[in-house]
Amino acid sequence: MGIVTNKTDKYQACIDSCAKCSRACYECFEACLNEPDLKERKNCVSTLVECAQMCQMSVGMMSMSGQFSKQHCQVCAEICDKCAQECAMFKDDHCQKCADICRQCADECRKMASM
Which InterPro entries match (predicted)? Predict the structure, then answer.
């Protein structure tokens, strides 16, 4: 629900999902840095940061009803899909949970982009 207006309430599910995804990616990033196979996670770690940043920007775009919010969320969905794919390659709990959250966010972003 909007903080000072209800103008962006129609985006609320996507805003919430993007905020959750960004947090999950940062948490997974930090956890991956402490894994013994960090070298093998190079692409995953890089994608986690891109995904987290994109999700944060999506929250901002939707919160201000930006004119490119739909296009932005479509790209966000693509990045979330890629992040989910990268995380899914690693069997530890934090990567598996992050992959699930990224998939959910990608779905919400696609729904928002098709509004």
Answer: Csp_YhjQ (IPR005560), YHJQ-like (IPR044543)
